[in-house]
Amino acid sequence: MTDFLGRHGLSIDSRLVDFVEAKALAGTGLDADKFWADFAALLGKFAPENAALLAKREDLQAKIDAWHQGREGQAHDAAAYQAFLREIGYLVPEPAAFQVGTQNVDPEIATMAGPQLVVPALNARFALNAANARWGSLYDAFYGTDALDAPPAKPGGYDATRGAAVIARAKAFLDEAVPLASGSWADWQGGQPALADPAQLVGTKPGGILLKHNGLHIELVIDPASAIGQTDPAGIADVLLEAALTTIIDLEDSVAAVDGEDKTLGYTNWLGLMRGDLTESFAKGGATVTRAMEPDRAWTAPDGAAFTLPGRSVMFVRNVGHLMTTPMVKLADGSEAPEGLCDAVFTSLCSLHDLKSLGTLNNSRAGSIYIVKPKQHGPEECGFTDRLFDAVEDMLGLPRHTMKVGVMDEERRTSANLAACIHAVKDRIVFINTGFLDRTGDEIHTSMRAGPMIPKGEMKASDWIASYEDRNVRIGLACGLSGKAQIGKGMWAMPDLMKGMLEAKIGHPKSGANTAWVPSPTAATLHALHYHQVDVFARQKEIAGEAVPSLDRLLNIPVATGRNWSEAEITRELDNNCQGILGYVVRWIDQGVGCSKVPDIDDIGLMEDRATLRIASQALANWLLHGVCTEAQVDAALARMATKVDAQNAGDALYEKLTPEGIAYQAARALIFEGVTQPSGYTEPLLHKYRQAKKAAA
């Protein structure tokens, strides 16, 4: 049984109360009683408005459903559709030209371009790995992945042949990014390097040389006594790249946080990151290893001046969206408090420890709190977030716009009104990001009644996607985000396929995006190479005046008009989606794992989270609705794929086999068969329901 404590008319999980009063408030100068009184007042003001915004979502969706049902069998009339969306307020007028006014932004976000990691807040080890991924070994990244065009390392210790290929590739990179005045880095004998551009040599220290290109640092580790250095003419033991400039510590799609226990753990880890004192111990190779946050790095400039570089990523925290409520805080009437309101207050309270330098290390040198706010539907909801952040700032005694916001452009109503959404948070915005996965799930749900959708694998080639990706960058540039905020792109989901990532993901900096998501610290190191190949800010200047792709293309519904699928095609699509749903949901429900590398139907490991689940479940719900497949066919696919998922997880000692009577299996089935009625097609309500049932049963 969960114990609840009363605070100013609220009933609050005792674990959260203990955390706030003993840890989060400590040293901040805030009075506990006043804090809870202010929190209760904030909920009293914003919870009803939150509920009204969600009701408006449902009203708009009902009107769109009715519009499509009233035109069943007719050819789609794009002009009439757009006029209808304007009439009901789904589309709003474009704001007059404006420039965002965001100030006090760290350079990693505003004026640098590089990779971004996203990690679950509930896993301290992952969070520490990500925070420390600011610097990554290029030698290790090439040696241990398929990114290098050379035979893989032979087992049984260091493979010198593989190592030689790694070193040759790394030095070829140095020749491209920081060329010597003459000759190649492969022949460099050591000492102070004579560069073609002497300004690229920015620092030295015993055992290190610091170079800079496209705003990113490169460290040469000089250690002639090391196993690698003794084979190198200059004693180079490694090449370190400045890699993950920023990291999102996630309380949303990559976590399974369903109650006060889970949320308090997430807040605790965030507090540790903001204080710089988070540690995690674990067994590795028969020994206990303790991981902690990396310190800053000391250097000497060519003029003799001492300086430091950050040792860690600048961290955002991703709060949940407006939809969910949480059982950890109950209002006076016994109803659950909106979870997003709680996140805004408690994550910002933890961030006070950074702003007030109460810990050992700092996150934001500019004095800002960085919060990513996902799953907002249109400018009205963005404006709600802006006013909520005003209230939290007042509650915590912070100057206006200390709390910065990242707007995920992952819902159709936001994409279609992006300039107005940016305008609604124009003095605190530091981030926009295209999220193909959630955006596709919302595309399917919004147009659920328009007809059967094209298969999931064909979505990336659909017309609306290209318009969506291009509009995001060009609208962001037109609103003045360059030099003040990140324009981001989505995840490379295959962490084992780094060669493919190197070939494909250069498209993100070429698009004008100054950050993009990667699935691991190693991937961040490799993706950093792209930002040496492309000067993103020069690219932004090139495309700044280009026209924004039309709204007509963005609203082009991906319906499979006149398509007749064979039985084999239907079976393959059902199996593909059911396997992905079961493989993800079984870990979410049974083990509380919100994001992990899940083998797909072809046994390729994919980073899966709730966004991928939203696509698969909505795709099958759509096909069921329109008779492309039957309930019996879906159930047969679930049965087939349960056997496959069991086999894929045979090596997991914690794994529980999937059975129709099991809670995880029931959750997967509900996501499909109740998908049409889920709010915006989100998976959270059902996942939370079944995870809570699993925890109660345990």
TrEMBL record:
UniProt keyword annotation of 4Fe-4S present: no
Reactions it catalyzes: glyoxylate + acetyl-CoA + H2O = (S)-malate + CoA + H(+)
Residues that, per the record, bind acetyl-CoA: V118, R125, F126, S254, R291, P519
Cellular component annotations (GO), alphabetically ordered: cytosol
All copies of domain Malate synthase C-terminal, residue ranges: 569-678
Cofactor or coenzyme needed: Mg(2+)
InterPro entries: Malate_synth_C_sf, Malate_synth_sf, Malate_synthase_TIM, Malate_synthG, MS_C, MS_N, MS_N_TIM-barrel_dom, MSG_insertion
Domain Malate synthase G alpha-beta insertion: 158-189
Residues involved in Mg(2+) binding: E410, D438
Domain Malate synthase TIM barrel: 314-546
EC supergroup of this enzyme: transferase
Any one GO molecular function term: malate synthase activity
EC numbers: 2.3.3.9
Protein family (similarity comment): Belongs to the malate synthase family. GlcB subfamily.
Function: Involved in the glycolate utilization. Catalyzes the condensation and subsequent hydrolysis of acetyl-coenzyme A (acetyl-CoA) and glyoxylate to form malate and CoA.
Protein name (database record): Malate synthase G
Recorded name of the encoding gene: glcB
